[in-house]
Design brief:
alpha/beta; Rossmann fold; 8 helices; eight-stranded mixed β-sheet; binds S-adenosylmethionine
Length: 210
């Protein structure tokens, strides 16, 4: 466990029981366009039946289930044991591992390459530098050449648009939300080929080509 961890697994354990209800209970923030974000991730990943897909921070497996329905094989990680318990109930046929994305070491069985790597509503817990280094590592070490890393998350076109948006949200709490202008520059500087689609007022999808 990290000392003074701002985002400990216990926060997500406490959310696991009612997570699925909350994705539709907060339609302005943070879940404006939630279903559309997940669908856009699937669309941009271009999955084929039989492909092996890695879902990072799978939560209760809502995104993983969409790939499963298309005939993909799912490998999923999360650092919250109770989120993983929910996910296992929905997708007993998938591979799961308890793993903190901030840790250097991965579970040994996940040391392989995937046709697609996806994640929804997770990376906004990481500073921009960590987002970029994780994307680089995933593309260079875990994605098959020609595969795609597709990340949907809380994301605003710029600092100014985030500020304007946040004024209307009661009890706004600052997190490491993506800012598209700086994120695209940082990802490209790291040698990544990236495209972005804004999906709702507060969320969008980053597509990185392997
Ligand atoms: C908002 S939920 C999103 C769940 C799911 N991907 C979805 O779109 O519905 C965030 C998930 O990320 C997981 N998570 C947050 N930080 C993490 C980390 N450092 N390593 C692994 N999982 C993490 C949480 O446990 C939680 O299940």
């Amino acid at each position: 466990m990290l000392p003074n961890d701002p985002f400990p697994p216990s926060d997500f354990d406490a959310w696991a029981e009612n997570y699925d209800q909350s994705t539709h209970a907060y339609p302005d923030f943070p879940f404006a366009g939630y279903d559309q974000v997940l669908q856009t991730i699937v669309e941009l990943t271009k999955p084929q039946p039989g492909q092996v897909i890695l879902d990072l921070g799978t939560g209760t497996a809502n995104l993983a289930m969409l790939f499963d329905q298309l005939g993909c094989e799912l490998w999923c990680t999360d650092f919250s044991p109770l989120m993983l318990e929910k996910a296992r109930q929905k997708l007993p046929q998938a591979h799961f591992a308890l793993h903190d994305l901030r840790a250097a070491a991965w579970p040994s069985e996940f040391n392989r390459r995937f046709a697609g790597i996806v994640s929804a509503y997770v990376f906004h817990h990481f500073e921009l530098e960590k987002k970029v280094s994780l994307c680089r590592e995933l593309v260079s070490q875990r994605l098959v050449p020609g595969g795609r890393l597709v990340i949907g998350d809380l994301s605003f076109p710029s600092l100014a648009t985030k500020k304007t948006f946040s004024r209307d949200i009661p009890d706004w709490e600052e997190e490491c939300f993506w800012l598209v202008d700086e994120a695209l520059i940082a990802l490209q500087k790291a040698g990544l080929e990236v495209a972005y689609r804004q999906v709702s007022t507060c969320a969008g999808v980053y597509q990185i080509q392997g």
